UniProtKB/TrEMBL annotation:
Gene3D superfamilies associated with the record: 1.10.3730.20
Key words of the record: Membrane, Transmembrane, Transmembrane helix
Native source species: Acinetobacter bereziniae LMG 1003 = CIP 70.12
Descriptive protein name: EamA domain-containing protein
Ranges where the EamA domain occurs: 4-132
Any Pfam family the entry gives: EamA
Assigned GO CC terms: membrane
Amino acid sequence: MEIIFSAALCSVLVSMLLKFTKQKGFDALQMIAWNYAIASLLSYLWFKPDLVHISISNTPWWLIVGLGVVLPSIFFCLSKSLQSAGILRTEIAQRLSVVLSLLAAYFLFQEQFNQLKIIGIGLGIFAVLCIVLSHSDASNQSINKKGMLYLLSVWGGYALVDILLKYTTSLGLQFPVTLTLMFICSFVLSIGYLVLQKTQWKIQNLCAGLALGVLNFANIALYVKAHLLLKDSPAVVFAGMNILVVLMGVMAGLVIFKEKLKVVTALGLVLGLLGVICLALAI
């Protein structure tokens, strides 16, 4: 669970950095593009993939291109969902994507669920609902068809990323190559999109993007490592990651942003902690 905890911490730091830079007027899309540049470099240095002798026929190009498209796209859909559907609905869609991931763990990865796993997952999902619904006054805006489309994209997109990243861990020697090429593909497609949009480049977005890339790479690398270590328990990684991200997000709000602790939020924190304990014991 230590690896999952570290991955969740990096994920929360990514969200906090995006929130801070948005308040300061940074361009999130430029940051996301440069984030994949540093993530590509770090992946090459950390995993040391053999990019010179890539096998054209054996390399899973569908997975590389798929993740290369989905990763930057989900960032884009997330920002649009926040604008059109509000923070509350977006947070619910993002975190409840774990339901789809858990279904994949059972049907695609053939994971067996024992009693502790089921209790931990149930407590965790209920805790997430308690926490996000306790902030229901933060989203009073109506939602149109486009907003609903972005919400569904966030819900399905985050689950798809979870599933595809889990799948990369089963590739053996092809895993480092796939992960590195995935980041490179994301960078190329993101830069291409910004060029077509005739974006005005700013050095502040480049610097912030590099910092974002370090955190995002650490998040994904640790998340994938957790799947490698718990290869027979993908549901524990899926659920544990989502629960811990929500719990850490609430703690950051209380400590850093001085938010008030509501009764329902406190209940969610307790249930979430119990859920994480159950998942840890179930490993």
